[in-house]
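Page 37, continued from 36.
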C-alpha cells in the first residue's frame, strides 16, 4: 500500500485527528510546539523540527520549477526520502524521477492528483504528501490509497497428487484484519509456484470460523508479502506485513497480529499449470482449504487428482525474499 503523509496548511486538531484515524504514516509540521501537541495524541511519525524525520537528513523537499530542480531531486542519497512538488502539477518530472528513485513522494492537493501519482509508469510514487487542512479530504485520499490494490494473474492449477505426511511444524497466521470468503494467502514450497490458501471464514460442526486467520502451512514455505517479495512462514511475527488476495487476484496489505507454530499432521499437495509444478505442504485437516476458480473454498481433505484450484506462478529465484534472475532448480 502506498504511504500517506499529511501536510496540514493549518495543523488544527480536526485535520490531525483525521490523519491519525485514516492511518497516515507521517505528519509534516513546521513548528516544534505543534510536534509536541501531536505526540500527545498518537505515536505517528512527524517530519519537521524536533520530529522523527529531520529535513536535510531523513527527507528533503524540492519544489520543481524546471529541469535543474528535477536533476537536483535525483541526486540525493538513495536512503533520503525526496518530497517533490510541481508548480503546475505536471507528471513529466515525476515520470523521470520514478525511473531513478525508490524513496520518492509527491505533494498532492486532491484525490485526482493522488490517483495519478500512484499510477504513473504503473509503478507510481512510494507515497503521496497531501497538503490540506480539510479533514474530509484526508479521509477521501486515504480511501484512494487503501483501494489501490496489487493485482496479479492467478492461474488454474490442476491437482496431480495429494500425499499424507507425518507430523510437521505449521504456521497459523492471525492478522489484525477480517478476511472475506474467497480471500487467502499465497504460499508454496517454491517462490515460483504458490497455492492460494483460504482464510478460515467457514464454519463447521467442530470449530467456529476464524476469519482473521490463515492456516498457511509448513514453516519452511514461502509466503508472498508486499513489494513483490517473499518471506519464510517461520519468520513471521506480530507487526509484519503480508499480502492477502481474493480469487480475482486483487491483493491488499494486512498486518500479522500473531504467528502460531504448532506440530500437526501434514499433507503434500502438488499440481501443474502449463507443465510447471506447484506444491505446498499444508496441515492435514478439514479446516484447511484452497480456493476454486469461482472463489469457493475446497478442503484439502476433499482434493483429488484432476481438481482445479487457484495459484500463482513465476520464474523461481529469490535472494533474501527479493526476486532475482538466476538459474535455479527446486524439487
Amino acid at each position: 500500500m502506498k504511504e500517506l503523509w499529511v501536510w496540514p496548511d493549518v495543523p488544527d486538531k480536526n485535520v490531525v485527528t483525521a490523519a491519525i484515524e485514516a492511518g497516515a504514516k507521517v505528519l509534516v509540521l513546521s513548528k516544534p510546539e505543534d510536534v509536541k501537541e501531536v505526540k500527545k495524541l498518537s505515536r505517528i511519525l512527524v517530519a519537521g523540527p524536533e520530529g522523527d524525520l529531520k529535513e536535510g537528513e531523513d527527507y528533503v523537499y524540492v519544489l520543481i520549477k524546471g529541469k535543474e530542480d528535477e536533476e537536483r531531486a535525483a541526486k540525493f542519497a538513495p536512503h533520503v526520502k525526496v518530497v517533490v512538488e510541481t508548480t503546475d502539477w505536471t507528471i513529466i518530472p515525476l515520470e523521470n524521477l520514478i525511473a531513478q528513485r525508490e524513496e520518492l513522494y509527491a505533494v498532492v492537493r486532491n484525490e485526482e492528483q493522488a490517483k495519478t501519482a500512484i499510477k504513473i509508469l504503473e509503478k507510481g510514487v512510494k507515497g503521496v504528501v497531501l497538503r490540506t487542512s480539510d479533514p474530509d479530504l484526508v479521509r477521501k485520499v486515504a480511501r484512494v490509497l487503501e483501494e489501490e490494490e496489487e493485482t496479479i494473474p492467478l492461474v488454474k492449477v490442476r491437482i496431480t497428487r495429494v500425499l499424507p505426511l507425518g507430523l510437521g511444524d505449521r504456521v497459523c497466521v492471525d492478522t489484525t484484519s477480517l478476511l472475506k470468503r474467497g480471500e487467502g494467502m499465497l504460499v508454496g514450497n517454491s517462490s515460483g509456484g504458490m497455492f492460494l490458501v483460504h482464510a478460515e471464514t467457514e464454519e463447521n460442526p467442530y470449530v467456529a470460523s476464524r476469519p482473521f486467520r490463515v492456516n498457511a502451512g509448513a514453516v519452511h514455505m514461502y509466503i508472498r508479502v508486499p513489494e513483490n517479495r517473499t518471506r519464510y512462514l517461520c519468520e513471521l511475527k506480530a507487526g509484519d506485513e503480508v499480502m492477502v488476495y481474493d480469487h480475482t487476484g486483487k491483493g491488499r496489505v494486512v498486518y500479522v497480529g500473531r504467528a502460531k507454530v504448532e506440530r500437526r499432521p501434514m499433507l503434500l499437495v502438488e499440481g501443474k499449470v502449463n507443465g510447471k509444478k506447484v506444491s505446498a505442504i499444508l496441515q492435514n485437516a478439514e479446516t484447511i482449504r484452497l480456493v476454486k476458480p469461482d472463489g469457493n473454498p475446497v478442503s484439502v481433505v476433499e482434493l483429488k487428482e484432476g481438481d482445479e484450484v487457484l495459484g500463482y506462478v513465476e520464474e523461481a529465484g529469490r535472494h533474501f525474499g527479493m526476486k532475482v534472475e538466476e538459474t535455479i532448480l527446486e524439487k
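The CA atoms of residues 193 and 278 lie 5 Å apart. Flag for discussion at group meeting. The domain at 155-323 is CATH 2.170.16 (Endonuclease - Pi-scei; Chain A, domain 1).
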